[in-house]
Specification:
This protein is of the alpha/beta class. It is 22% helix and 33% strand. A five-stranded mixed sheet has the order 1-2-5-4-3. The protein has a two-stranded parallel sheet with strand order 6-7.
Length: 143
């Protein structure tokens, strides 16, 4: 059984889509409410480590990408989920996965995602006097 099949089996119904995205790359789509459980499964039972968190705004959603490395298999697994652009909010993974501390702060600064339960939501990229509610990576941002 390859890693994509193992992930599908471990995550069950939480894995809305599992696809091999190329050599050493697996994409897994989950609902926002299943992101924490999926991350715990990947890191806890399956032995992955969180490498990065990123996001982007599409026409219809804020897309979040949590990248996990399976070092022994030489594979990167990306957990993807979408949030509404109007009020993008999701529970933070930082209390359980300290590697998410900085990247979630960066995504908050640049895209305006609220990470509920994050232990330190100070600004990371933007200055302290940056206007509230202005996020440079959002489509409506203009210089």
């Amino acid at each position: 059984m390859n890693l994509a099949e193992q992930i599908r089996a471990q995550l069950g119904a939480a894995a809305l889509e599992v696809a091999e995205a190329g050599p050493g790359r697996v994409r897994v789509r989950v609902a926002p409410g299943d992101l924490g459980a999926a991350a715990r499964e990947l890191c806890g039972r399956m032995g992955a480590r969180l490498a990065d968190v990123a996001g982007t705004e599409t026409r219809s959603a804020i897309e979040l990408f949590y990248q996990f490395c399976f070092d022994s298999a030489g594979t990167v697994v990306t957990l993807e989920t979408g949030l509404p652009t109007a009020f993008p909010e999701i529970p933070s993974l930082a209390p359980e996965l300290p590697a998410a501390l900085g990247p979630e702060r960066e995504v908050r600064d640049m895209l305006g995602v609220a990470f509920r339960g994050h232990p330190d939501m100070r600004r990371l990229v933007l200055s302290d006097d940056w206007p509230e509610g202005i996020h440079p990576m959002r489509r409506k941002y203009r210089l």
